[in-house]
Amino acid sequence: PENLSAAPAVPDVVIPIAPPATPAPEVEKEDDFIDGQIFETGIPKRIATGREVMLQGFHWESHKSEWYDIVSDRVEQIRDAGFTQVWLPPSADSLAPQGYLPRNLYKLDSHYGSAEKLKSLTRKMKENNILPVLDAVLNHRCATHQGAGGKWNRWEGTGIDWGDWAISNEQPDFAGSGNAPTGDVFHGAPNIDHTQDKVRQDLCEYMKYLTSDEVGFGGIRFDFSKGYGGSFTGEYVRACEDNVEFAVGEFWDTMNYGVGLEYNQDSHRQAIVDWVDQTGGCCTAFDFTTKGILQEACGRGEFWRLIDAQGRAPGVIGIWPARAVTFLDNHDTGSTQAHWPFPGKQAGQGYAYILTHPGTPCVFWDHYFDWGDKLRKQIDSLLDVRDKMKIHARSVLKIEHAKDNLYAAKIDDKVAVKLGREHWEPKGDGWKVEAFGDDWCVWTLTK
Questions:
Q1: Does the pTM exceed 0.70?
Q2: Known catalytic residue: 373?
Q3: 3-class SS at 403?
Q4: Which residues contact 177 (CB under 8 A, 6 or more apart)?
Q5: SS3 302
Q6: CB-based contacts of 65: which residues, under 8 Å, 6+ apart?
Q7: How far apart are CA 27 and CA 29, in angstroms?
Q8: What is the CB neighbour count within 10 angstroms for residue 254?
Q9: 223 is catalytic
């Protein structure tokens, strides 16, 4: 069997990863900085500038509390820490209390709080320069009424009233008469047929309403993005025009496993890049490739995993960092569900990586608020480094070491990071330790 503790040999022939069909323009030259911002055109403006740090503002059990009140009480703390946006839980009426089995889409009273409390929260967040991010569950929708044969496949009195024609045709339980799915099937509820003009028109109007001044969302997180074609996601983002400043999709696919996690995950990240490309580049995606590789590297000291065969980061941040949202855990992978958790003792090490590296980092609520002062202070120190040194989604990464027990890299030649038990420090004068924890350290260049 393969020796997973040893660094794999670089193959003699390297097949380059195909870039997106319409790659993001090169924007790393100083000339592209205007008032400290970086710009691409024709995409949501916070993706264009790349200066974001997201907080996932809930966990799997949040519905058991008056959650909007809890988040509202912490808005100033969230702002002062340096978070620029907060991903809020699904806001619509839902069969399940967590919100992921939506039903009456326009009814915004949920287990997290009333519609009025939601609107009050989004107003307060915007007053504090924090972007409220909607969790849009558009792949599937639970019916309000039964149709022919007693199947739950009709909606009445919801403002978006559909029939079995709006359900894709590969779910006998719901007797959908629509077209074939354009992605993977979610088996717990009727899967919506996004090829239907009426469906897309209704969903465009719905998204425009949620991102209007009345409701107040300014960003969108798309749930179960692999369930329907990325082109539809792009259409929903563009329908909202300038009201959407950031968008991110959850394209979560199984990684490549052999005897354990394989070293080469190029095809996994390419699938995510391809989905972003299908949106027209107007959406970012959660970097599940980086999550899977990073937790294996930190948990086992196998830091040789953190470099690909071309010398780049092995996740989406290695090929399209401007469209990658990095994270350690979310309400599915961590929290009380713990489907695929990051090793808890290495959480500080994980944040030392994503908060210093290119891409848009996302910090999990539990890690920041519930795991104690030590981890929160470490995250605060890393957020401070990212802000002070102006690290952004397109920052330039140079990996200096990636082997058993040591990963070392420099970002924009002004931040250095070391993970692992082996000793390393940046050479030359002017480097100052800014943040550190168990088997990790971050320096900044002060000259």
A1: yes
A2: no
A3: strand
A4: 164, 165, 167, 169
A5: strand
A6: none
A7: 6
A8: 8
A9: yes
